[in-house]
From TrEMBL:
InterPro entries the UniProt entry points to: GlycoTrfase_DXD_sugar-bd_CS (IPR007577), Nucleotide-diphossugar_trans (IPR029044), Put_A1-4-GlycosylTfrase_plant (IPR044789)
Gene3D superfamilies linked: 3.90.550.20
One Pfam family named in its UniProt record: Gly_transf_sug
Protein name: Lactosylceramide 4-alpha-galactosyltransferase
Species classification: Eukaryota, Viridiplantae, Streptophyta, Embryophyta, Tracheophyta
Length: 151
């Protein structure tokens, strides 16, 4: 069955109905699937309470606090992260928190495979047939058709 991953870096109390609907949609199309939410705030008693109705229905869902340093071990991103931590690299225009969120999701996929979904993504059909796919959220107009945002 398909392994799914989400990240949640906001406080657990903001994990609301929209996010629960997204999680439920995973299991409607993949009742035997497994969903791991990489989140320090959801890996808590409050997060357990939020996820309990899904667990009570037999769904395989859990939250785990990501350890970015361990997650990046043996990945191409390890050097970048070490340089960022030691102030040897300019963080650029993108906020570090956004870079870390993107890095966490890419490292999870790199190490474990599966499907990454944003917490507002509604699954409407099975992903079982997809192999090595990537979704483009925004594509430039014109001849280049370059992807500018990837999911």
């Amino acid at each position: 069955e398909v392994r799914f991953f989400m990240t949640w870096f906001s406080p657990a109390e903001f994990f609301g109905k929209r996010e629960l609907l997204a999680v439920e949609s995973v299991f409607k199309s993949h009742p035997q699937g497994c969903l791991m939410i990489a989140s320090g705030s959801m890996d808590s008693p409050q997060g357990d309470t939020i996820l309990k109705p899904l667990l009570d229905r037999g769904y395989k869902v859990f939250a785990a606090t990501p350890d970015i340093t361990s997650l990046l071990e043996n990945t191409p991103a390890k050097t970048w992260f070490q340089e960022m931590k030691s102030c040897k690299r300019d963080p650029g225009r993108i906020p570090l928190s956004q870079n870390l969120s993107n890095l966490a999701r890419l490292a999870i996929l790199y190490k474990y495979g599966g499907v990454y979904l944003d917490t507002d993504y509604i699954v409407t059909r099975s992903f079982k047939g997809l192999k090595n796919s990537i979704g483009a959220q925004t594509v430039e107009e014109g001849d280049s058709r370059n992807w500018t945002r990837l999911n």
